[in-house]
Amino acid sequence: MVKFVKTIVVALAAVLAASVSFGKIKVACVGDSITYGHGISDRNMTYPKQLGRILGEGYEVENFGVSGTTALHLGNSPYMATRRYQEALNFQPDIVVIKLGTNDSKAANMAHIDNFVSDVKTLISSFENLSSKPKVFLCLPVPAYSNGKAPLSINGDRIIGEIIPLLKKVAAESKAVEIIDLFAPLSSHSDMFPDKIHPNADGARVIAETVAKKIRK
Question: 98: which residues sit within 8 A by CB, 6+ positions away?
Answer without folding.
Answer: 30, 31, 120, 123, 124, 136, 137, 138, 139
